[in-house]
Specification:
homodimer, alpha/beta, CBS-domain
């Protein structure tokens, strides 16, 4: 598939971090997820990433307990951020995702969050390379 | 990665279809998704698959409109089922997912739903093959 497990994760991550404020409602966060077709958002306060929110977090912490969609993001976001350095090989990142049972991970450089990687990014990277290969046949 | 784009999708799909009833509440469906760690469920009535429910459907049709978690699954499930024959090559299936902007697809054999394929299955298949390769080095 043209995917190199030894390549650094920065090759496969996306730099397009979609952010919401911790004071935004979960309704708004859901709308942003659908608008940008992403399964996770970073929660940003000032210049800092203070949390992370996935569709799974919304199911687990809002839908199941039956909280209203006006609940602020800060009440259900994940504050323990999982991040890997941007030089980490893809294979090692897949290992972390698999062991932790997660589908998205933040990528850092010099202590700053610079990107995010999800399994979907890998699919898209594979497809792009595949299409390139077909186009140059 | 040891992933063969020409192999039939039945090699990569999972036969473990996790089902709920159309009369189950969305709260229950969310609990089942978390319990089995899946992003989608088939909705089963008698022996028939009558619908499909993803985390995205729950965000779009329950969380954003602010419906209660006691809403029955049948009110927010997707009834237009997207399925491919089990002999379809993986590469073609990835194409369908990409074009339709979806992450899960049903797999059929002789007009019956026999499995489901998601991007996560591909990751797991890649990892299993990778681990096998490492173990036999």
């Amino acid at each position: 598939m043209g995917v190199d497990l030894k390549a650094p994760i920065k090759v496969y991550m996306t730099r397009k971090l979609i952010g919401v404020s911790p004071d935004d409602t979960v309704k708004r966060a859901g709308e942003v997820m659908l608008e940008f077709d992403v399964g996770s958002l970073v929660v940003v306060e000032g210049r800092d990433v203070v949390g992370f929110l996935t569709k799974g977090d919304i199911i687990r912490r809002l839908v199941i307990p039956g909280l209203p969609n006006t609940t602020p993001v800060r009440e259900i976001m994940t504050t323990e951020l999982v991040a890997v350095p941007s030089t980490t090989p893809l294979g090692d990142v897949l290992d972390v995702l698999s062991k932790k049972g997660i589908k998205h991970i933040l990528v850092e450089e010099d202590g700053r969050i610079v990107g995010i990687f999800s399994i979907t990014d890998l699919l898209e990277a594979s497809r792009r390379k595949l299409e390139t290969a077909i186009a140059t046949e």
